[in-house]
Structures are given as structure tokens and as C-alpha cells.
Amino acid sequence: MDAALLHTVADGVATVVISHPAKRNAMTAAMWRALPEVLDGLAADPAVRVLVLTGAGPTFCAGADISSLAGDEDPRALAVAAEDALAAFPKPTLAAIRGFCVGGGSQLAAACDLRFAEEGASFGVTPAKLGIVYPASSTRRLAALVGPAVAKYLLFSAELIDAEHALRTGFLNELLPAGQLDERVSDFARVLAARSQLTQAAAKEFADGRTDRDAYWAQQAAGSDDTAEGVAAFLERRAPSFSWTAGGPARG
């Protein structure tokens, strides 16, 4: 199969699959360019409440396919644009990781809100092997996730770490035994899809440092029925049916 980004939507969950099996799902220039557009379409789809990013087969993403990055294109700019679009996706995002999550793969995983991995996965941020300056935005995102000392360890050494180490650093939220990743991600994605998008969208912005938007989200809450529905559902001992929906492009 040619290199591609595959996506499906079912039960409120959009799944985007990085598929380039000949290169361990390394991202080509075309795939980097395509990801923001794919994300914009899914962000605007009211049927989508959660996004799962994963890789085809036994690998998440082994980085960038350097052989495809030719001509006048700036590979760093392509990767940063895709990473920023993923980070700006207005609904919860979860990376489901098995195998190699290296270089550009780690960039994409770090741009997701949550990361679940299967035992045996490997992680690394490897620009020091190529003499590449890692983008400032990517470095800040990594440091915010794992702390400055761990970010420097990964960037200075370009060494791979195993999944247990990644869990200890805080890069991973959960580490699953072999064979259990897909079921756990599916179950947790359904949990997220059932929760209030209003709560999630506000929490995502606040956690990412957008504290200037407190008044905006207070206004959104005041104009929404989500709180009344949540309280009523709790008192009536039923599942809530929240109506507020996040939308719009993944960028901006």
C-alpha cells in the first residue's frame, strides 16, 4: 500500500491511521501536508467527539521519510504545521502507540492530549543524529509534557527509551500489556465521547495555557444546557445527553 493517512468515524470516534508500511509508517512530505486538511474536516464534523491517532500494523510512526523531503520544501515547517494542527484540534485526541514512536512520530504523539502505548514500544527524539535543530514550538511542547530535564535528555542524546521509561517520565498516560491496546483505547475513547465537550474544550485550552479565555468559556457555559442536563441526569440516575459541540478548523 502507498503512503497515506486513512481515517474513519464510528460511534463518535474518528480514527486516523498513519499508513506507510514500507518505511515503518514514516511520514512523507505529502502526508505532512495532508494532515492539517484531514484534521480540519474531522474538527468540523459534528459526529466526531474524539480523535484517535495510530499507526498501521506494528509501528506507530518511525519519523519522517527523509527521501521524500526534496526540493525547496522546509521539512521542519511541514512537520510543525501538522503538529500544530493536531495540538489545536478542538476535541480530545489520543495517540495509540505500538512499536516505534520516533522523531516525527514522537512529535505527533506529544501533540495529542493523551498517549496510550503497548508494551514493547520505543520512543525517541532524534534530530541530534542528523544535525537538525528541533523546532522551538516542538521543544516547548515536549518540555511541558515531560519537564525540561527529560526533554534535554531526549534531545541531547537522541537515544531511544522503552515504554516503561516513557511512562515514568510522563510521556505516556497508560501502558498496556501486549494485545490489550486496541480494546483499552476503544473503551476509553467511548468514555470521552460520552462526556461534555464543553468541559473538555475549556479544560484543554486552560491546560495548554490559554487562561485568558476564562471569560469566553464562562459565557459558553452560561449559554449551554450542558450543566442543567448533567445535573438532571445525575439526579435521575441516567446517562447524560450533552448538546454543546466543539467545532471549526483544527488551526487558528
Structural notes for this entry:
Strand 2, helix 1 and strand 3 (50-55) form a beta-alpha-beta unit. The chain has helices at 29-43, 75-87, 104-111, 136-146, 148-157, 163-169, 181-194, 197-207, 214-222, 226-236, and strands spanning 4-10, 13-19, 50-55, 93-97, 100-102, 114-118, 122-124, 161-162, 174-176. The longest helix is centred in the N-terminal third of the chain and has 15 residues, at 29-43. The strands form two sheets. Strands 1-2-3-4-6-9 form a six-stranded mixed β-sheet, sandwiched between helices. Strands 5-7-8 form a three-stranded mixed β-sheet. The chain has 252 residues and is an alpha/beta fold. It contains ten helices and nine strands. Helix 4 packs across helix 5 (148-157).
Instruction: Write down the overall geometry.
Output: globular
Strand count, sense and closure of the main sheet? 6 strands, mixed
Strand order of the largest sheet: 1-2-3-4-6-9
Helix content estimate = 40-55%
The number of helical segments is: 10
Distance between the termini: 33 Å
Number of strands: 9
Defining key terms:
252 residues; globular; single chain; alpha/beta; three-stranded mixed beta sheet; 9 strands; six-stranded mixed beta sheet; 43% helix
